[in-house]
Design a protein that fits this description.
The structure holds two protein chains of two kinds. Chain A is mainly α. Chain A has ten helices and three strands; from the N terminus they run αβαααααααββαα. In chain A, a hairpin with a 2-residue loop joins strand 2 and strand 3. Chain B has a domain of 186 residues: Cytochrome Bc1 Complex, Chain C. Chain B is built from nine helices and one strand; from the N terminus they run ααβααααααα. The longest helix of chain B has 31 residues. The chains are: A mainly alpha, B mainly alpha. Strand 1 of chain A pairs antiparallel with strand 1 of chain B, so a sheet runs across the interface.
């Protein structure tokens, strides 16, 4: 007669307890010895990382493991490269994949939530008694795929640079040249802000950026409106019927005016 | 009963009597014995040390974190002496001036990464062994919660130095939470203590990082270790001497069927 799963599980566990009792080794000292050695290694590793980090860096000067600290937090500056700690890189990179606003929540909340639910529920949907990896092909393939995708996303997040402000900044002089605003310091400052604040994550400007997702090309936007209009628009895109773009009012009035001047100067070049 | 030596009486009085006194009221000694003097399967080895390694990293975090808490000041106000935010200046002082402060802060900083890595390795080992199956389902669930809380610890701790990296990484993190349907705006508002990160944000993260999350984490770790001790560690599933393995049905001695062996009849 086929016995039910619960009964088989309980029998196996009863055998386990019996085997361990009769045939096992003492946790103390045998297993505890391994644990102690391992713990010692862990503490040494942490102290070694701390030492390498400290002695290779100097203040804000980064060493092998980064600086002691960067400059003090300043909400007013924009020449930053926002980087989470490494174990959030996968999330950071998912954001690059789902970058268009309507899909962003899939990356930021959807996928992590699904992963967490799948992890928590694992013992309840994988109910077979089989524990040998060679006899659990589905579990093993799923594990390998998960590890691979986490590793790839973490790696891509660590090395991602397509939309990093500091690199787009290098393009500003060529933009100024092409659009003819090189002698307008306010427009140049605006262009630098434009490069640094992630506008090119959605928009295209003179062939740079990712406009394939639907946000307009801004190379010739200066033909349509003036600085004053752009400042109002940036401060509150929703008031212009744009519910996709967020407000940039946190940049402050001066920065918004610089951006506005830059956009007004962007007439498409020669 | 033979008379005890003077020395034995001293030991009784100084060590055993107090221990008995405590044990009678708390079962502490019995509990410790239950934890230490239990058997584990004979085929377990280094793979099963990852959990205790993660525990060690967590203890390093608790100790270094407690020391850091004595010197760190969770305030974004500008320090009139240094002209920098108070929190930032206190981090500078811990790193540059406090005796061995760099080691404490460095170990806390890197211990966080080591803790997360060990949690992932431990989880991978448990998955490979199928050790999350009956009866250890709750070990797995508490473990996943420990991982999730560990990552939240990383997120909230990252802001505390109040430098550019910390600030902007947290801005991004808050914006990520803000994209959640329904709860998103509320969550972002809560995490930034307002529409934007402000002077109240740092105390919030400090409180979460120092009090709420570690409290929850320590409670979960206790439950996790209690369950591991109670249910036992699983053998490697490929081991030929795995505890709980199926035994082949006993082969009846030749001749049983024919009733030639004495006492075998009538089955």
């Amino acid at each position: 007669m086929a016995r039910d799963l619960g009964e088989l599980n309980r029998e196996e566990y009863a055998r386990y307890k019996d085997d361990v009792k009769k045939d096992g080794k003492g946790f103390f000292p045998f297993a505890m010895w391994h644990d102690t050695v391992m713990s010692f290694v862990v503490v040494c590793l942490i102290a070694a990382l701390a030492a390498i980090w400290y002695f290779d860096a100097d203040g804000v000067e980064p060493g092998l493991l980064g600086p002691w600290y960067t400059e003090p937090a300043d909400p007013g500056t924009t020449d930053f490269i926002p980087r989470p700690d490494w174990y959030f890189y996968f999330l950071f990179y998912l954001l690059r994949i789902f970058e268009w606003p309507e899909t962003v929540f899939i990356a930021t909340v959807g996928i992590p939530t699904i992963c967490l639910i799948l992890l928590l529920g694992l013992p309840f949907y994988d109910r077979r008694r089989e524990r040998r990896p060679t006899h659990r092909p589905v579990a093993m393939v799923a594990a390998v795929l998960t590890i691979l995708s986490m590793a790839v996303l973490t790696w891509k997040g660590a090395t991602a640079k397509e939309a990093l402000g500091s690199e787009l900044l290098l393009l500003v002089p060529s933009w100024a040249q092409e659009q003819g605003f090189a002698d307008d310091p306010q427009a140049v400052a605006g262009a630098e802000l434009f490069a640094q604040t992630g506008c090119l994550n959605c928009h295209i400007y003179l062939g740079q950026g990712s406009g394939s997702l639907g946000a307009p090309d801004l190379s010739e936007v200066g033909q349509t409106n003036d600085t004053e209009y752009f400042v109002r628009y940036l401060a509150n895109p929703a008031a212009f019927g744009n519910n996709v773009m967020g407000s940039y009012s946190y940049l402050g009035q001066d920065n918004l005016e610089a951006l506005g001047a830059f956009l007004e100067a962007s007439k498409g070049g020669e | 009963m033979a008379a005890k030596s003077k020395r034995q009486q001293m030991v009784d009085l100084a060590v055993l009597a107090p221990l008995d006194w405590i044990d009678e009221r708390t079962a502490f000694v019995r509990g410790t014995k239950w934890f230490l003097f239990r058997n584990v399967p004979r085929d377990i080895s280094w793979g099963q040390t990852l959990g205790s390694a993660a525990l060690t990293a967590f203890i390093v975090q608790t100790l270094t974190g407690a020391i850091l808490a004595l010197y760190y000041k969770p305030s974004a106000a500008i320090d009139p002496v240094t002209g920098k935010p108070v929190a930032y200046s206190s981090i500078e002082a811990i790193t540059d001036e406090l005796t061995l402060g760099w080691l404490v802060r460095g170990m806390h900083r890197w211990g966080a990464s080591v803790f997360i890595i060990l949690l992932f390795l431990h989880m991978g080992r448990v998955f490979l062994f199928g050790a999350y199956k009956y009866p250890r389902e709750l070990n797995w669930i508490t473990g996943v919660l420990i991982l999730a809380l560990g990552m939240l610890m990383g997120f909230t701790g990252y802001l505390l130095p109040w430098d550019q990296t910390a600030y902007w990484a947290t801005v991004v993190g808050i914006n990520l939470n803000g994209t959640a349907p329904f709860a998103g705006p509320w969550l972002a508002q809560f995490l930034a203590t307002g529409p934007e990160i402000g002077t109240n944000t740092l105390p919030l993260y400090y409180g979460l990082h120092m009090l709420l999350l570690p409290g929850a984490l320590i409670a979960l770790i206790f439950v996790h270790i209690y369950l591991v001790t109670r249910l036992g560690v699983a053998s490697p599933p490929w081991s030929t001497e795995a505890a709980g393995r199926e035994r082949p049905a006993a082969v009846p001695p030749a001749g049983t069927r024919a009733g030639l062996v004495r006492g075998s009849g009538g089955d």
